[in-house]
Specification:
With 204 residues, the protein is mostly beta strands. Helix content is 14%, strand content 45%. Strands 1-2-7-6-5-9-8 form a seven-stranded mixed β-barrel. It has a two-stranded antiparallel sheet with strand order 10-11. GO terms for molecular function: peptidase activity.
Length: 204
């Protein structure tokens, strides 16, 4: 199968209990590699992300911007930065730091209070491995690159983690449960990177 580079997004959850108020940092679990149902020109398929350390290129994510809903047209879209990122074979984690700019402060307070808790990772896939399971196509990203982390309003995607202070609860949602709003968010993100007309993007 030929290598492809495609912009994709997945949502995950912030961990308000892990927040450091003085440093303005909070931990994020941005992927568990859980299956997500997608569609391409050949039809529906199940996407999986390999979280083997050798499969994930973290060079772009280390020090990357934390964005407002994948927007990147102005400096004001930058809410903070990724301080560190790692994968351990089971999940992808990051420590993100929020800006101290006055306009970001309300968002930081909402993160601390648990009102804003959803993030989305934007990534490209350089190499897929295709298999078939129970008659369904399965594409596993075996060489891929996370590019940025965004604060988003939409609910968590399959495999999202909610980090608690003394324990961790895993919430897994079947791929079929993806909301229309979540799909539209992905469409808008891809359209922005592709340079499509803003009026078309706003209509999605």
């Amino acid at each position: 199968m030929n290598d492809t580079v495609t912009l994709l997004t997945r949502r995950a959850d912030l961990a308000p209990a892990s927040a450091n108020r003085d440093n303005r940092t909070v931990e994020v679990i941005w992927s568990t590699g859980a299956p997500v149902r997608r569609r391409d020109m050949a039809g529906q398929y199940v996407e999986r992300l390999s979280l083997a350390p050798e499969a994930v290129d973290l060079s772009r994510l280390q020090g990357a911007s934390v964005l407002d809903a994948h927007r990147q047209s102005a400096v004001r879209d930058v809410l903070g930065s990724v301080q560190s990122a790692a994968v351990d074979g089971q999940r992808g984690t990051a420590l993100i730091r929020f800006s101290s700019r006055p306009e970001v402060e309300p968002l930081w307070q909402d993160v601390l209070s648990g009102i804003l808790r959803h993030v989305s990772v934007g990534y490209s896939v350089e190499e897929w491995a295709e298999t078939t399971e129970s008659g369904a196509r399965v594409l596993t990203a075996v060489r891929w690159t996370p590019h940025e982390i965004s604060l988003v309003p939409t609910p968590a995607d399959p495999g999202a983690h909610i980090r608690m202070e003394t324990h961790m609860t895993d919430i897994t949602t079947p791929p079929e449960a993806q909301t229309r709003a979540a799909i539209n968010t992905e469409i808008r993100s891809i359209a922005r990177i592709a340079g499509l007309d803003q009026s078309w993007i706003d209509g999605q």
